[in-house]
Amino acid sequence: MSVLFACQGTPIADSPTPTATPATQETFGTAQLTPAAYPDKELSASPAQLPKLPYADNALEKAIDAETMKLHHDRHHATYVENLNEALQKHPQLKNRSVEAMLRDLNSIPEDIRESVRNNGGGHLNHTIFWQIMSPTGGGQPTGEIAQQINQTFGSFDAFKKQFNEAGGDRFGSGWVWLVRNAQNQLQIVNTANQDSPIMEGLYPIMGNDVWEHAYYLRYQNRRAEYLNNWWNVVNWSQINRRVQAVSQQKS
Fold it and tell me: Is the dihedral of CA 245, 11, 198, 201 positive or negative?
């Protein structure tokens, strides 16, 4: 279950139904908020495959050291992929479904592998998005459509960044902090536990930061706030705009 934060930063009670003040009055159908892994396609489970990093291990040194990147991608993400494929071997008919489709309808997954699909499918999807939305030439102020929408919804980039960091810091234990689009076409900040994906609650992930300790501990130890601050130096606004544009084209 995620914790939702209203557009102006007021926490909302734990609920699968977002209730933030909308940025506009347009709506989406929840089922239309696809795809999630990439702007143009979903993640195959036939079998699931570890994506290559779009940059070198040491390319994000402004925020993340090379050893952490290598361990995070080559070990942690690879393990989620391996475990997901192992679980799906027990029910090969599920390989015809995308990872996103399984996560959106976990109740349809056989009970003996449901938790594994939730954890490992979620870990695979979350990390696939994470690698894309960072860049060695990233950082700075947002540009394009995402800049306009952040200013419209949160008042300013600084206000948005402060609320996003606070939500990441408030996630107890392991998890993620996200900017999502909900079914009412609202931008919203959400944090999720463990490897839970926002799409499990009908939310479309625009951008997210990993706040598991394995994402930052080698450099930052217990200083999660410092990691959250430095992470903005590698945010890939160009890729995030691609995600914004993809979901904008799905308006009902």
Answer: negative
